[in-house]
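Take a sample.
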Amino acid sequence: MCNSSNLNKKLNSMKTWILTDGQRGMVNQCLGLTSALNITALSKDINLNIPWKWLPPALTPKRFYIISDHTNYISPPWPDLLIATGRKSVAPALAVKKANNGNTFCVQIQNPGACYKYFDTVVVPFHDKIDGGNVIRTLGSLHGITPKVLDQAKQRFLHEIHSLPKPLVTVLLGGNNSTYKMNKTISHKIANDLLNLCSTKGYGLAISSSPRTPADTINIIKDRLTDKINEKKVFFWYGNGPNPYMSLLAHADAILITSDSVNMISEASATGKPISVLHLPNASKKFDRFHTVMEQAGVTRPFTGDIESWSYTIPDYMKEVAAEIIIRMDKYIA
């Protein structure tokens, strides 16, 4: 087995690819892992041809012809390390491994379904119920948020944030996905809850929407909070200018997040700030498992109308995942 110094040198000299469908949340998880490994990577966005884009990975050929416009994009020299995430990345990642005669170490983030056994390492949160010798399980999703990242982010958006009342609650709005739907009724309730926090409780609010947040939700909240926004008691970002997401995390005294986003809750956990979860109706068993795990770890609590204060040990699974992957890669980079 290589010693730590030799392993790090070899890692830095390796060719690494990131393979995703280009969604920011997917890319960020892969970048979080490369950051924890202290390596750089070439990021490649892929899409699949019809009908493969509609089929589960287990029914998709592990061949390059399934990839749209692959000839000028997925080609040699093949990577030594490939980090992939998302359903559409599963078959292409395994095709790369096959083309390189098995010499590409393949890491799949998130559950690749029945194909998980073909990867060298699979990294999944505990709420994804898969297990095996090649599986690393984590409390939440992977991310790249560290104290250094937060310190740097705290120097930005000072003008917008410093004037807000304290304590400052950062509010992260998700939106529609395969489980949750953020309809007008829910949006009005969220708007009323936020108005109560700043009007009755006296909190400052720094609100950020996401690409999944419906336009109706944004408009309902804007309309309800117009006076508070004008009074500089609320800052609301909804795609209007540079994204303050990281700065809002860094400046928060507490964080309120809708329950539809595993990624945002996992990223927020790196701050050590109390995280209240605004639960949307119609949760799935998978989301229920995630929220139960995070509550049991002391990271989150359900939002009940007010902001509670508590402390918890910041989950440090990124370092643990990186260390375990280096050990598993030993035979490839020795």
